[in-house]
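Please describe our next protein:
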Amino acid sequence: MPYSRLAGPFVAGALSVLGALAPAQAETLTDALIKAYQMSPVLEAERAALRNTDERVALARSARRPSLTALGSAEVAADENSDWELFDTYQAQLQSSLLLYDHGQTAAAIDAAKSAVAAGRAQLRNVEQVVLLNTVAAFMDVRRNIQSVQVARNNVSVLQEQVRATRDRFDLGEVTRTDVSLAEARLAQARANLAAFEGQLTTAREAYLAVVGAPARDLQAPPALPQVPQALERIEAIAMREHPALNAARYLETVAQYDLTRARAARGPSVSLEATATARNADGLTGRSDNLGVGVGVTGRVPLYAGGELSALVRQAEAVLQQRRFEVQDTARSIREEAAVALSNLRVARATIVANREEVRAAQVAFEGVQEEAILGARTTLDVLDLEQDLRDAQLALATSLRDEYVAAYQLLSAMGLLSVEFLNLGIPTYNPDVNYNRVQNAPYSTVEGGILEKLRDRYAR
């Protein structure tokens, strides 16, 4: 079989690989991002953690509210003075207390709780970024591996024709047994490569399922890349202002400052108002008696010595504050590094795409040329096989560089703290942390509003 007959299927396969994958009813990147946002158990866990943090405000504010406790007792007694006759006594009591002054401990606790909520919200935003970025990477990995499998399958098809053609020429005495063996060896290698690429595709599909929550089916070509700044100084400025991980670290530093204030305030005096109301019914030698009583008092407390506990709490809070400050610095450095690396990766990917496209074009021309030369006897079978391998490698490299460019662009958005449902304009309702916070911040006695959380969970679990 002439070498020129092999070029047709190879060129057609290359065009199908490098063309857009847009079958009917294909799933878009936007679809995948929406599914990941709405069905991610990682996000649901982080939202539950934030609701847990919301309760810290309610717990801190409860110290300013009055407490009311009901007590009840029943007693049966006997002694020798009553000839061991049994006498029963019943008592009910209400105890109430109200904190009037605590040297600023409660105020600091409330401020610390509010800052912890702000830190939790920033952390939730950061987890959302991670989920969305992982979705983009998983989506592009599946598409890249699909293209790799198509290239490998086309390569197997071409080499099968190559083996048949070489065997025909061997029967005619035009080539040697060595040429046939070379073609057969390349075909075996191509089949091994196809199996490896199919395995990588299976792995990528499983990773997609884990991130998105649904299997990857007919993934459509992604939309145009989002516009991102190209100046590193501007990127870093945006990241220092917007990145949720850095904002979370700053809020945690604020929490530590308020905790230190509270630890120092614990050394000061506190004043509380206390009241009791008692009803007593007792059986005695003179008969049963009822007694009602009330009492109101003010209690002041000043810690004089606590075995070193108060000083230890202050030192502990000071150490935590130092830790949080260093964590802010470390987070800022990491974000700057992440931004610089993401911008570099984007630039490298774009330069690589230009080079790989030129490589594919040149390899295609060289492959077709060496086929024609082999027909005339100017090239060997090994030359044809080598050029075919070069063309396949160039196509795979181009598919990888296209994937790398897309992921690098979203990594840059994430590094700037801009990767969100709103920025990507996904057009879906987002989780509103104010719903739960407003419900619990004032420490309501009843929890009948818990149905709201159930509705939210059911809505975002779909």
User: Anything to note?
Assistant: The chain has one domain: 4-63+102-268+303-461. Residues 200 and 423 are 32 Å apart (CA to CA).
